[in-house]
Amino acid sequence: MAEPEYPEKFTGPIANKYRETLKLFNKATELDPKFVDAWFAKGDFYFGYVNGEGDAIECFDKAIALDPKYEPAWYGKAKALAKLGKHEEALKCCDKAIALLPADAKDNDRDDNDNYFAGRWCEKADALAALGRDKEAIKCYDEIIEMKYQMMKDYALGQKGITLAKLGKHEEALKCYDEATKSGFYRGGLDQVEMNLAKADALSELGGPQERMLKCYSSAISICANELVDNERNPVSEYNWEKGVKKLQEICSQAINGLKKYNDY
């Protein structure tokens, strides 16, 4: 496997620690090439820390070849494939993972690797949405919303709203956004910028109220702009600054277009 690409923020001692960690994983798989847990952990490391989706998939495939019923590897592979935009393949891996889960998975919170059980259905729903299979995606998000443990509920509600908006169901979408964000905690990976933009766009399509629409657009702009502020506690690299500025430009354009649509309502 090639030397992994280290994000710019992982330089100096941190990057060195990651390289040392990778050496330990390499040693473990060299000493015992049939050590399934080691192949999975190595793949999880590649995926989670060093932008190594391709290498992660290779490791997960090694684990699956050794034990086709090793569910965490199927789930890890699904996440890596999704990040590469390979949603059809990711969906197949999600189905494999879900089929291998214990019967009471929907009634429990996390697995032995500290991953939320609901995450499998989130990956599946996101893959379906990315493939344009919106009605199936909505059904899958509903399954997550009905699960006993609710940490992923906010995320599922938000994504369900975005999918409903794609179908032109803006009033239903707005209800989902409001439900998703009412706790104020943005749990389960819910993106504050994305949610504020989604709310504002729905209000634009529905003809207001204007004050609430503008407040949502302004919140999205403010959050994004604050991420560009460089200080000792939160240094911003040149790469992240440039990326953030482009994102801010896109958000401002979206807000202007939303206001125009509202005025034409």
UniProtKB/TrEMBL annotation:
Q: Which SUPFAM superfamilies match?
A: TPR-like
PROSITE patterns xrefs: TPR (PS50005)
What SMART domains has UniProt attached to this entry? TPR (SM00028)
Q: Give residue ranges of the TPR repeats.
A: 71-104
Protein name from the UniProt record: UDP-N-acetylglucosamine 2-epimerase (SKI3, TTC37)
Is this entry keyworded Repeat? yes
Point out the gene that encodes the protein: SKI3
Mind telling me which Gene3D superfamilies this protein's record contains? Tetratricopeptide repeat domain
Q: What are the UniProt keywords, alphabetically?
A: Repeat, TPR repeat
Residues passing through the membrane, by range: none
Q: Which organism is it from?
A: uncultured marine thaumarchaeote KM3_67_E02
Q: Does the keyword Repeat apply?
A: yes
Q: Write down the superkingdom of origin.
A: Archaea
